[in-house]
Amino acid sequence: MMLKIAVSRCLLGEAVRFDGNSKPCAAVRELLAARAELVGVCPEVEVGMPVPREPVDLFGDPSGTRMIGARTGEDWTRRLDAWARERINDLLDQGIAGAVLKARSPSCGVGDAPVHPAGSGDPVAGDGLFALALRRAAPGLPIARDEDLGEEAGVEEFLARARAYACGRAR
Q1: Per-residue exposure over 100-122, b if at least 16 CB sit within 10 Å of its own CB, e if not
Q2: Of 10, 102, 107, 125, which cross-links 43 as Cys (Cβ 3.0–4.6 Å)?
Q3: Can you give the residue ranges of every domain in the chain?
Q4: End-to-end CA distance of the chain, in Å?
Q5: How many CA atoms lie within 13 A of 64 on its CB side?
Q6: Average pLDDT over all residues of the chain
Q7: pLDDT tens by residue, 134-171
Q8: How far, in Å, CA of 25 to CA of 41, rounded?
Q9: Between vectors from CA 7 to CA 71 and to CA 96, what angle results, nearest 5°?
Q10: β-bridge mates for residue 66, sequence order
Q11: Is 12 exposed, middle or buried (0-12, 13-18, 19+ CB in 10 A)?
Q12: What does the DSSP assignment read for 11-42?
């Protein structure tokens, strides 16, 4: 049985980013795709944001992180959180054994999304809203940033973690 891995759609070469571009990742498209079934996901498009769209930024305070439109101030937090719960349940029902997400994305960043603290100050590194929801819903699920894969060794290390996760889940 081939592993299923959720992958940010921009890494697959789909033009879904805020600026209408993609960020194709050779490690994903060539190395990972040869060894796993890839399930594309784009939180911002799937929640209803257009392509192209205004950028969104993350703002953190004690009550949680908010996703706010950079120009309009539109708050996407509740919509993205509600969508994420349903989409993550769907991905888990499909049997995903891991996820590869776009680094520094306000939805998909894994520990490296810029979060602006309440008040003022320089941004701090945090999780994007989808990445955070995925971590909470599926503790132990291997999650990697595209930049973590690098070449063959990074892909193999990630797949080893995904296989171990899948084996543990099957018991």
Answers
A1: bbbbbbbbbbbeebbbbeeeeee
A2: 107
A3: 3-170
A4: 15
A5: 11
A6: 94
A7: 999 999 999 999 999 988 999 999 999 999 999 987 65
A8: 15
A9: 130
A10: 59
A11: buried
A12: GGT---STTS-----HIIIIIITTTEEEEEE-
Dihedral angle of Cα 140, 166, 9, 68, to the nearest 10 degrees: -20
pLDDT band at residue 118, thresholds of 50, 70 and 90? confident
Dist. CA 143–CA 147, nearest whole Å: 12
Residue among 16, 38, 27 at smallest CA distance from 151: 27
Tokens of 163: 């296989």
Axis-axis angle for helices 129-137, 77-93 (nearest 10): 40
| Phi, psi angles (nearest 5°) of residue 101 | -120, 155
6 exposed, middle or buried (CB, 10 Å; 0-12, 13-18, 19+)? Answer: buried
